[in-house]
Amino acid sequence: MKQIGVFGGSFDPPHRAHERVAHAACGQLGLDTLLWIPARQPPHKPSRTLAEPLDRLNMVRLVTRNVPQFAVDSRELDRPGPSWTVRTLESLKEDHPDAHFWLIVGSDNLAGFSSWREPERIRKLASLAVYERPAEETEPATEPATVPAATPIHGAAIDISSTDIRERLRRGASTGDMLSPVVLDYITKNRLYQ
């Protein structure tokens, strides 16, 4: 059975920690394909203004272009409204009825999983895999008993956040090696986050 990873997010911008999680997930979960799925508007970030969908999609394409297991899926950008994970998984299941899906989430998102739209339906459509997020980004679950079981992805945590990167870019400060050179070049040429 084909094993497909589902790696969603705003990717605003995609950075080295995203890349590390993606590689670790492929190796540890035995994935045939890892789908990077940029969200149009993450439901848990309704008020935050994101870079244009096409820019985020282009940056993800740059990051993934030389890794055979990586693929970019634009279905969340192609449909209007919030990017509900359950709808994405249902759509993917229609396209790949015989595949087994792994939904890859950060520990911060897993902590609030019970508040997601149709969490039980999500668990029927995909197995959960979790990677650790830096402590300052992770909010504890309000009810620990509601955090679902998930397969851990080990060794993927890096203390990098998109928020910090955007702030550095806004100030004209260096991002060091937080971004791949192709993404930094795209950001510079297109004057993003200034």
In words, what does this structure look like?
This protein is an alpha/beta fold. The chain has one domain: HUPs (Rossmann fold, 3-Layer(aba) Sandwich), CATH 3.40.50.620. It contains eight helices and six strands. It has helices at residues 16-29, 53-64, 75-78, 85-95, 107-111, 119-125, 162-171, 181-189; strands spanning 3-9, 33-38, 70-72, 100-106, 127-131, 151-152. A six-stranded parallel sheet has the order 3-2-1-4-5-6, with helices on both faces. Strand 2, helix 2 and strand 3 form a beta-alpha-beta unit. The longest helix is centred in the N-terminal third of the chain and has 14 residues, at 16-29. Mean pLDDT is 91; it is low at 136-142.
Attribute tags:
194 residues; alpha/beta; Rossmann fold; 8 helices; 37% helix; globular
